[in-house]
């Protein structure tokens, strides 16, 4: 798909302010036609069933169901449509989940419109999966990730802890960065090792990054 002017867009977000801002921004480019706006998962599903769309721009967690439901509904009702997820969270686990669910881009709502629009246009034109550069590095290593089933056993928070472990952070620093207690970090680390079948922290990181465990320092 390269003719942006014919691109039919569905905007999905619980905030009317967000969807109206996006509608105006896309309208000013003269490249897109917004054919639907939805503020709940149910509204989005009705739009997808009743209106032809080429692009869905959706929040990560739309009111009315679990995270990424609209991404999955798009795959069901409009499999040829491309999906761009907008989020407030620079979370590697959220970005990974969005791409695994079928989105072609995970972008941050805090980005200036001048930066967002070219990325959305690139997604429509068929660019490779895109993750905002400010999202943690772990999410930007798809070719070196273990099979999705392995990571799928981790909760979103466990994935975030694993991402910090991959950066070489000890428990105290992880607790500080994620605004949780040291004991909570320890609990998450134990769960990560158990679910991944890893011997220790270094082994868990090596499983994710595909490196020798000697390249990491245990804490």
Automatic annotation (TrEMBL):
Q: Which SMART domains match?
A: HTH_LUXR, REC
Pfam family for this entry, one = GerE
Q: Which domain of life is it from?
A: Bacteria
The answer to keyword DNA-binding applying to this record is yes
- Record keywords: DNA-binding, Phosphoprotein, Transcription, Transcription regulation
Response regulatory domain: which residues?
8-124
Domain (HTH luxR-type) ranges: 147-212
Question: InterPro entries from the xrefs?
Answer: CheY-like_superfamily (IPR011006), NreC/VraR/RcsB-like_REC (IPR058245), Sig_transdc_resp-reg_C-effctor (IPR016032), Sig_transdc_resp-reg_receiver (IPR001789), Tscrpt_reg_LuxR_C (IPR000792), WalR-like (IPR039420)
List every position bearing 4-aspartylphosphate.
Answer: 59
What's the name of the protein? Response regulator transcription factor
Q: Which organism is it from?
A: Lentzea miocenica
